[in-house]
Amino acid sequence: MIISPKKDFSYFLRLAIAGTCASVMALAAASAGAGECPADKRVADGQGQKPGPTTPKGVTDVVRATTDISKEPAGIQGRLFRLRQLDMKPGAIVPWHSHGNRPAMIYIVSGEVIEYASNCAVPIVHKAGDVAPEKNGTSHWWINKATKPAVLISVDLFPNETKTEDAHMM
């Protein structure tokens, strides 16, 4: 059987994306608790860290892949399964935002970042290898206070009816 280079590339791209997603999910399971708010510091939403900056600074946000979940066996209407890469320079800020309508997981590939979450009484330090779950009831912002860049991979269920200007909503 002969496969054209275009189809061959598409196959390998899908395979790479599937492998990346599976790896992120496996790492999330393996590192449960790492990079999360300590159990004794969890508080009701709004009782933790206060809102921070509202605009991004020093962050590059690249959408690497999306899948329309309505066309998959799960059949979730109005959602994209999205994989992004966030590169945070030293001093970079991911601004205050909510996950009330968009569950996500962040895998810290390299570097170290600090999260200020509305449902945690203390700042949360995330290091390379940590996975940060972002669930309903979480509003937060992140900063890279280190002297080296940080690289993060984000997977989320993004509402596909969101306006184009919000497509890179943190």
Question: What does this entry show, briefly?
Answer:
With 170 residues, this protein is an alpha+beta fold.
Under CATH, the topology can be stated as: Jelly Rolls
| Overall strand count | 8
Order of helices and strands: HEEEEEEEE
Structural class: alpha+beta
Rounded to an integer in angstroms, the radius of gyration calculated over CA atoms is 17 Å
Q: Terminal Cα separation, in Å?
A: 44 Å
Question: Given the C-alpha coordinates, what overall shape results?
Answer: globular
The helix tally amounts to 1
How much helicity do the residues have?
10-25%
How can the largest sheet be summarized?
8 strands, antiparallel
Low-confidence stretches: 24-32
CATH top level?
Answer: Mainly Beta
Structure report:
The longest helix is centred in the N-terminal third of the chain and has 26 residues, at about 5-30. This protein has one domain: Sandwich (Jelly Rolls), CATH 2.60.120.10. β4 and β5 form a beta hairpin. The protein has one helix and eight strands, in the order αββββββββ. It has one helix at about 5-30; strands spanning about 55-70, 80-100, 105-110, 110-115, 125, 130-135, 140-145, 150-160.
